[in-house]
Amino acid sequence: MRIRTTRKAKWYAAVLGLATAGTFVLSTGGASAHGYTDQPLSRQKMCAANGGTVSGCGDIQWEPQSVEGPKGFPAAGPGDGQICSANHTNFGALDQPRTPSGTAWPTTKVTGGQSYTFRWQFTASHSTTDFKYYVTKQGWNQNHALTRADLNTTPFLTVPYNGQRPPSTLSHAGTLPTGLSGHHVILGVWTIADTANAFYSCADVTF
User: Fold this and answer.
1) pTM (2 decimals)?
2) Could you tell me the CA-to-CA distances from 48 to 3, 102, 160, 168 in Å, in that order?
3) Alpha carbon 184 to chain centroid distance?
4) How far is residue 80's CA from residue 96's CA, in Å, rounded to a whole number?
5) Confidence of residue 124 (pLDDT cuts 50, 70, 90)
6) What is the pLDDT of residues 25-74, one digit of tens each?
C-alpha cells in the first residue's frame, strides 16, 4: 500500500511538472520580438551593461532590445521628445541630447552619398513589415530631446520585409543622404507586421 501511494505521488508530481513546463513554453513562445541597431551603434547598445561604452543610463542597460512603442511613425508612434525611448520613461536617458555623464553621445563616422550597411541584432524574432531610416535635418536643434521637427520625416531608406521573420542578425545596405555635415541622428524603425508596435533605435553619426 505504501508503494502505491509513493508511485501515485511521483506520478502526480511528474504531471504537475509537465504542466508547468508547458505553461512556460507557451508563455515564452508568445513573447514579443526585440532588437536594436549596432551598425550604426545605437544609444541603447552604447548603454548596454554587456559591452556598452556609456554608463549610468538606468534600466535600458538591462534591456537594450526593448525600445518598443506604437507603430505608424511619423504620423503616429512615440511622442515628440520621447522618440528615442519609444515613450518609455524608464528609458529616458536615450532621449537626452547628452549622455548621463554630460558628454556628447559617441558618434559613428559616415559619408553622405555612399553605401552603408545597417545591421540589427535581434533577441526574439517576429513577422516584419519593413525597416525604415530617418535622419535629422541640417541645422537641427541638438540641445533638446529629438522631435519630428528635427527630422526629415520622409525615410531615406525603406527595406520591405513582407511579413518574414528576420534571423538573429540582419544586415542590409542603403545609400546615405547627401548635403549633411556634422553631428546627426539616424532613427531606425523596425515595424512589426502582426502587432500594433514597432522598435525604435537612435544612432548618433558624424557626416
Assistant:
1) 0.84
2) 54, 18, 28, 18
3) 18
4) 12
5) confident
6) 322 333 455 999 999 999 999 999 988 999 999 999 999 999 999 999 99
Cα radius of gyration (the chain):
21
Report the C-alpha gap between 82 and 79 in whole angstroms.
5
Phi and psi (nearest 5°) for 146?
A: -60, 135
pLDDT tens profile 158-206: 999 999 999 999 999 999 999 999 999 999 999 999 999 999 999 999 9
Q: DSSP letters along the chain, please?
A: -HHHHHHHHHHHHHHHHHHHHHHHHHHHHTPPPEEEEEETBBHHHHH-TTT-S----GGGGT-TT--EEESSTTTSSSPTT-TTTTT-GGGGGGGSSB-TTSSBPP-EE--TTSEEEEEEEEEE---EEEEEEEEEPTT--TTS---GGGEEEEEEEEEE-TTPPP-SEEEEEEEPPSS--SEEEEEEEEEESSSSEEEEEEEEEE-
Peptide bond into 74 cis (omega under 30): yes
Residue carrying C-alpha cell 528576420? 166
CB of 88 within 8 A of CB of 95? no
